[in-house]
């Protein structure tokens, strides 16, 4: 994995590296490898993950087919200057 450091901006490069590692699942793998996982625990965890994935896929399919309503999206706050900094109109 490579991250380019532009203009000696190490902080930004570090943020980019952490984001890439998060996407690749490296942090999750490091946490899992910290301690031994018994084969029975591993099997149970993998089955639970498979059930979660199947439920999520079924829920998305039902939303696509219109069987259930899609979750409401939260409105984003307005961008730009804060309300107190904007000049009042008369």
Q: What do these coordinates show?
A:
- The protein is mainly α and 90 residues long.
- It has two domains: 1-35, no CATH class; 36-68.
- The chain is built from three helices and no strands.
- The chain has helices at 10-24, 26-33, 39-65.
- It is flat, with a radius of gyration of 22 Å.
- The model has no long low-confidence stretch (mean pLDDT 89).
The overall strand count is: 0
Number of helices in the DSSP assignment: 3
Low-confidence region ranges: none
Instruction: Tell me, rounded to a whole number, the average pLDDT.
Output: 89
Task: Provide the helix percentage.
Answer: 55-70%
- How many discrete structural domains? 2
Helix and strand pattern:
HHH
The Cα radius of gyration reads 22 Å
Strand content: under 5%
Give the CA-based shape: flat
Structural class: mainly alpha
Termini Cα gap: 56 Å
Biggest sheet character: none
Give descriptors for this structure.
90 residues, mainly alpha
Gist?
The chain has 90 residues and is an all-alpha fold. Helix content is 56%, strand content 0%.
Could you outline the blueprint of secondary structure elements for this entry?
Elements lengths: L9 H15 L1 H8 L5 H27 L25
